[in-house]
Amino acid sequence: MTWRFVFKRFIGDPVAMAAGLVLLLLVLMAALAPFIAPQNPYDLMQLSIMDSEMPPAWQDGGDERFLLGTDAQGRGVLSTIMYGTGISLLIGIGAVVVQAILGITLGLIAGYKGGWIDAFLMRLADIQMSLSTLMIAIIVLAIFNAAFDANTYADYAIFMLIMIIGIAEWPKFARTVRSSVLGEKSKEYVDAARVIGLPARKVMWGHILPNTLTPVLVISTIQVAEAIMTEAALSFLGLGMPTDRPSLGSLIRSGFEFIFSGSWWITLYPAIVLVVLILALNLLGDWMRDVLNPKLRRGED
To answer: How many domains does the chain have?
Structure first.
């Protein structure tokens, strides 16, 4: 299978193309937020309490400066969405990097070494998977929130979320890599590498790992979506990003208390963006699974 084949399948699948285009637009929107956002929601000099809870520009009482309205702090909803999407993507991608580093390393070792090392690491993974990621995150973040003041928590919130979500989800990568290694380590190219005297470290990382990256690529896309959902849930519970440094989850939470008073736009638009982002990532993950998994291909090569 070549990249030309993958590209051909991509342009021939309208759902995958639509999901890819939506994801690209959201990533560009987040990356370019400091340059294209109408307002910097972190700059107090640009905020005015007199602008709070304004409806979208096309409704009565709206202001053309704020296309999607404003929140209770006078921040433009469109601007907070642009910045918040970037924070959500940063946490999602960062958490998956942590998951991948831990999972790939332990999965390689377990699959290649076998024996008691494999049994120990897989039982450790079973224990980890039996615990809810959300439950672990709630306990750790609640302790962290209680132990430090609000400013310290805000400074380290992104780092804490990345590490907690990443460490809690490593078994998914480890199990995926281990199963691939078990199928690869008995092949002739691995035997040849051993015969010429290469150390186990070089055999694992230089020869076996490159042949196990296809399932890792697929699971990474899906895990980014799951990490973003976990962060959004934690932020909605008040244990994720603080409201003055908004992610999509904290934006939804900050407007939830106003939704019944008529200020529905504060919650609705961040929620729509979050749903679209998760949907695009999951659709791309499903497409990649179908294309890159030889067992699921429909006779094309």
So the answer is: 1
* 3 state DSSP class of 130: helix
- Let me know the angle formed at the C-alpha of 77 by 150 and 96, rounded to the nearest 5 degrees: 60
Q: What one-letter code names the amino acid at 68? A: L
- Could you give the CA distance from residue 262 to residue 285 in angstroms, rounded to a whole number? 37
pTM of the model: 0.85
* Residue in this structure with the two tokens 């924070």, named with its chain if needed: 87
Q: Is residue 216 part of a domain?
A: yes
Look up residue 197 and give its two tokens.
């005297």
- The pLDDT value recorded for residue 299 is 46
Task: Please give the C-alpha separations between residue 113 and each of 120, 128, 195, 245, in angstroms, as whole numbers.
Answer: 11, 21, 17, 45
Name the token pair of 184: 């690869």
Which domain covers residue 90, as residue numbers?
A: 59-296
31 part of a folded domain: no
Number of residues written out for the chain: 301
